[in-house]
């Protein structure tokens, strides 16, 4: 027994042990773990990888050139530089941002078979100064789907060269995906069943969400459609605006939306699930549904891998600035403490460079397109937890509204600006009164003429019977229309359902 204890003590102090344990985090390159013994470095890395706190940094200086406002664009990391292409905007340039440089955003000139402008597409880094561009929509209203695949190869000195790179349309063989947009895409360069493959899942086609999984094998240019071996196997719901990642020979599919459009359409569900696909067994497994509020896995959110952690931000039309983190080893969720704040977004991009996340474009809660680039520092230096707890700011109004609507779905009836005013007037920490027999119009000091007209038309805006109908699965719009017909002489044909 004494000999075993001595051997164990020697093992605990051995450099080999701690360097072996730290291999999981080598690619993360924490600056805080650059000094000290192998044991000290590992303990520092393990603490940092838990992501206990994140800090919102100032946005990029307006002295730099800023790309035009956009949403539905695509981005990826190539050589620790951020590439952005197209989107729903008037700009189809390939843009580059070097976070370590001083030039800001730069438009890159590329030759070859350049993809036509589009939105809802994907741009995925595949290493060695290369990226793959797939799918997207070419016309407004979620139509004009495409399924073309282009490779982008950047030159050796691509950041300073006049001809930065070359586009090429890839003519793959096999079973290619159908035309689709707002799909999820992921790539892994490692060997194994998931390696050297571009994985494509879901998306929207003919205004209907999809749930098919395809992969493109780079060495052979072969497309493959992946279906479960057993017809009775569970599969993810049809969805678009979801995200994907490859980790340890498994494909992860996260969140998204089951409806027919992004902003005006309320005919679907914002999802909060995570699925894992095992290529060797050809089987889907649901895991780790997010139960945190506010959530950040709904339609057109973003997700980045950080070691074995998935970091989610944004999504859903009721945007928030919540950060949700999933540990792929323990399958535990948590929300790190936030220092600073930024607006919530939908249909944006989030690209990781080192220990920072760069969030560009998208739309805010008013559905206005953005051109700003916010930065999240995953490893803030000189963090003083006690001081931060004293100065911690409460949830912003938009996040509080999202939590209320999540708890009380009937609040969807009221315009966003009215709920904002209500929460502001009620003050911090106030709770919404019970909905049974409640006259919300008496609690909302609003001068909005449209809302006053709606209130006058409805009489009692929403009562317990109506809430019960919604909870039983009746569409909210149908319940509201029924109330309007009962409380007025307006017929259903004369009501503007929008």
- Assembly of the depicted chains: single chain
| Overall tally of structural domains | 2
> How many extended strands?
29
Radius of gyration: 25 Å
The percentage helix is: 10-25%
C-alpha termini separation? 77 Å
Assign the structural class, choosing from mainly alpha, mainly beta, alpha/beta, alpha+beta, or little secondary structure.
alpha+beta
Low-confidence stretches: 383-395, 433-462, 487-498
- Strands of the widest sheet, in order across it, are 26-1-29-28-27
CATH class of the largest domain: Mainly Beta
Q: Examine the coordinates and then state which fold CATH places here, giving the name of the CATH topology of the largest domain.
A: Neuraminidase
Q: What is the mean predicted local confidence, pLDDT?
A: 79
CATH architecture annotation of the largest domain: 6 Propeller
How would you portray this structure in words?
- The radius of gyration is 25 Å and the shape is globular.
- It has a five-stranded mixed beta sheet, with no helix packed on it.
- The protein has helices at residues 2-12, 15-21, 38-49, 385-391, 397-407, 416-426, 440-443, 449-458, 464-471, 476-486, and strands at 53-57, 74-78, 81-85, 94-97, 105-108, 110-112, 122-127, 130-139, 143-154, 165-170, 173-174, 184-188, 197-201, 204-205, 208-209, 213-217, 222-226, 243-247, 250-257, 270-278, 283-287, 302-306, 309-313, 323-327, 333-334, 337-339, 349-353, 356-360, 373-377.
- The protein has 498 residues and is an alpha+beta fold.
- The relative contact order is 0.10.
């Amino acid at each position: 027994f004494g000999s075993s204890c001595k051997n164990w003590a020697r093992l605990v102090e051995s450099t080999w042990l701690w360097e072996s344990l730290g291999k999981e985090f080598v690619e993360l390159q924490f600056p805080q773990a650059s000094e000290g013994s192998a044991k000290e470095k590992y303990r520092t890395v393990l603490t940092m990888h838990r992501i206990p706190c994140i800090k919102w940094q100032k946005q990029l200086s307006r002295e730099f050139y800023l790309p035009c406002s956009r949403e539905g664009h695509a981005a990826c990391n190539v050589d620790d530089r951020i590439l952005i292409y197209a989107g729903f905007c008037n700009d189809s340039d390939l843009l580059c941002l070097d976070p370590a440089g001083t030039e800001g955003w730069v438009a890159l000139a590329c030759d070859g078979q350049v993809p036509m402008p589009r939105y809802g597409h994907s741009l995925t880094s595949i290493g060695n100064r290369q990226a793959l561009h797939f799918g997207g929509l070419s016309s407004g209203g979620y139509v004009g789907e495409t399924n073309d695949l282009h490779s982008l190869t950047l030159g050796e000195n691509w950041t300073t060269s006049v001809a930065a790179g070359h586009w090429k349309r890839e003519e793959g063989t096999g079973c290619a995906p159908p035309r689709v947009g707002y799909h999820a895409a992921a790539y892994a360069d490692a060997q194994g069943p998931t390696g050297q493959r571009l994985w494509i899942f879901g998306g929207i086609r003919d205004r209907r969400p999809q749930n098919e999984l395809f992969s493109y094998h780079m060495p052979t240019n072969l497309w493959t459609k992946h279906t479960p071996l057993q017809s009775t196997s569970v599969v993810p719901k049809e969805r678009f605006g979801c995200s994907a990642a490859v980790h340890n020979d498994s494909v992860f599919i996260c969140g998204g939306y089951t409806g027919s459009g992004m902003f005006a359409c309320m005919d679907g569900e914002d999802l909060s699930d995570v699925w894992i696909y095992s290529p060797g067994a050809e089987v889907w497994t649901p895991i780790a549904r997010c139960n945190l509020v506010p959530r950040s896995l709904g339609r057109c959110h973003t997700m980045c891998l950080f070691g074995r952690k998935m970091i989610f931000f944004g999504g859903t039309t009721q945007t928030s600035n919540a950060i949700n983190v999933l540990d792929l080893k323990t399958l535990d969720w948590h929300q790190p403490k936030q220092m600073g704040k930024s607006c919530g977004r939908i249909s944006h991009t989030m690209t990781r460079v080192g220990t920072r996340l760069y969030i560009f474009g998208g739309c805010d809660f008013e559905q206005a397109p953005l051109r700003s680039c916010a930065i999240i520092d995953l490893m803030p230096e000189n963090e003083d937890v006690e001081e931060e707890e004293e100065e911690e700011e409460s949830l912003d109004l938009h996040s509080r509204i999202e939590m209320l609507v999540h708890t009380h779905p009937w609040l969807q009836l009221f315009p966003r600006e009215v709920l904002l005013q209500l929460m502001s007037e009620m003050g911090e920490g106030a709770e919404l009164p019970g909905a049974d027999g409640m006259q919300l119009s008496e609690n909302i000091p609003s001068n909005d003429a449209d809302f006053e007209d709606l209130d006058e038309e409805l009489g009692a805006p929403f009562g317990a019977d109506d809430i019960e109908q919604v909870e039983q699965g009746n569409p909210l719009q149908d319940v509201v229309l029924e109330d309007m017909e009962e409380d007025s002489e307006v017929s259903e044909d004369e009501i503007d359902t929008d």
